[in-house]
Design goal:
With 381 residues, the protein is of the alpha/beta class. The chain folds into two domains: 8-172 and 362-372, Glycogen Phosphorylase B (Rossmann fold, 3-Layer(aba) Sandwich), CATH 3.40.50.2000; 180-358, Glycogen Phosphorylase B (Rossmann fold, 3-Layer(aba) Sandwich), CATH 3.40.50.2000. It is built from 14 helices and 13 strands. The chain has helices spanning 17-33, 49-56, 77-96, 111-120, 135-140, 180-186, 206-220, 241-249, 266-272, 282-291, 307-317, 331-343, 345-358, 363-372, and strands spanning 8-12, 38-44, 60-63, 101-104, 124-128, 146-149, 165-167, 194-199, 230-235, 257-260, 275-278, 295-297, 321-323. The longest helix has 20 residues, at 77-96. The chain is elongated, with a radius of gyration of 22 Å.
């Protein structure tokens, strides 16, 4: 990254992609708006950021921090000792290079920078991705000047009032403007079908793949009926692809199933689809809203504080999605969901309209512009 002498900003968060990629998106947008800004990322040695930040050439500080096992909090001694060490390292950094503002996007990796910012009186901006705020966000709200939320439902669950909260959306890539017919051609899918995109995230989901596989097998054996117009674009995840392929070969690989291990061009898949069957992660559901894509959501039951179920229920209440608990992911239930999507085009159109109404495609720019208000005014060249 080029050296500059402008304002110094710390962006902290990580552990998982759901916290890291918002941090990267906000930083990129901030640097686009203010090219003089110097950004340093704070994350965890054992998080995804340990690989991604060096690959991007980002200035960074990686801490030996750990999440707390909520099932055995007293056994999470490493989390407490790691936090103490991390607070000392971050305090030293902030004393030497006092940031103008600290941005925290959540996850245990973001806690030390947020705590130190609060104790030192450095402006703190939080970005919360989910309907149910994470533990780090709740902890840091007392220090924060601004809290950006993606779900309006999250505001009532914050320890502070709404005055410091802004409903901004999640910082994800812009929606695709590709024509659906053109997008389908990229995947060899006919233009005149009802296309359901199935995705369990970048790594895939064993439970989702198993449930969809059981449905496909039941259809091919005549145990369940499939609307002839329905096709699946099924993104299995790389490590699940071979197993899914073998299962499909056993039923002579139906022509209505189109499988991919992973998609580099997910925007094209979103543009091609009429609906989605997916987990209920915050960034994924944000992309569905921005694309106006109705969804059947299967929340991950082991997600921290059950936040995916809260996301899914919020979108169901908003009329953009339907919730299918993993425990109910049977061939019969999935058959009913597919029939409902195929038999009610007006209902599908209504879900699409409500999704677009809730979408906030300008989230990244909005958050970055707000962060920039905490910086000194840029001097004219």
């Amino acid at each position: 990254m080029p050296e500059t002498t402008g304002p110094f900003v710390v962006v902290a968060g990580g552990g998982t992609g759901g916290h890291l990629y918002p941090a990267l998106a906000i930083a990129d947008a901030l640097r686009e708006a203010r090219p003089d800004v110097r950004v340093l990322f704070v994350g965890a040695r054992r998080g995804l950021e340990a690989r991604v930040l060096p690959e991007r050439g980002e200035e960074h500080l990686l801490l030996s921090v750990y999440g707390i096992d909520r099932r055995r909090p007293l056994g999470s001694w490493r989390a407490f000792t790691g936090l103490a060490s991390a607070l000392l390292r971050v305090s030293r950094l902030f004393r030497e290079r006092r940031p103008e503002v600290v941005v925290v996007t959540g996850g245990y990796a973001g806690a030390p920078a947020g705590i130190v910012a609060g104790l030192m009186g450095i402006p703190l901006v939080l970005q919360e991705q989910n309907s149910w705020p994470g533990a780090v966000t709740k902890l840091l709200t007392r220090f924060a000047q601004r809290i950006h939320v993606a779900y309006p439902e999250a505001i009532a669950r914050m320890p502070v009032g709404a005055s410091r909260c802004l409903v901004s959306g999640n910082p994800v890539r812009p929606p695709s403007t590709m024509d659906p017919t053109e997008a389908r051609a990229l995947f060899g899918i006919p233009a005149d079908v009802l296309l359901i995109l199935i995705t369990g995230g970048s790594q895939g989901s064993f439970a989702l793949n198993r449930g969809v596989g059981a449905y496909v097998e039941a259809v091919e054996r005549g145990e369940e009926q499939r609307p002839h117009v329905a096709h699946f674009l099924w993104v299995t995840g790389p490590k699940h692809f071979e197993g899914v392929e073998k299962a499909l070969a056993a039923v002579e690989h139906p022509a209505w199933i189109h499988i991919e291990p992973y998609l580099d061009n997910m925007p094209a898949a979103l543009a091609a689809a009429d609906a989605a069957l997916s987990r209920a992660g915050a960034m994924t559901t944000e992309e569905f809203l921005n694309q106006g894509l109705p969804a059947v959501l299967v929340p991950l039951p082991t997600a921290a504080e059950n936040h995916q179920m809260f996301n899914a229920r919020a979108l169901e209440a908003a009329g953009t999605a339907r919730v299918l608990p993993e425990s109910e992911l049977t061939p019969a239930r999935l058959a009913a969901e597919v029939r409902a999507l195929a038999s009610d085009p007006d209902g599908l159109a209504g879900m699409r309209s409500r999704a677009l109404a809730r979408a906030r495609p300008g989230a990244t720019r909005k958050i970055a512009e707000d962060v920039a208000t905490f910086l000194p005014v840029r001097r004219a060249a």
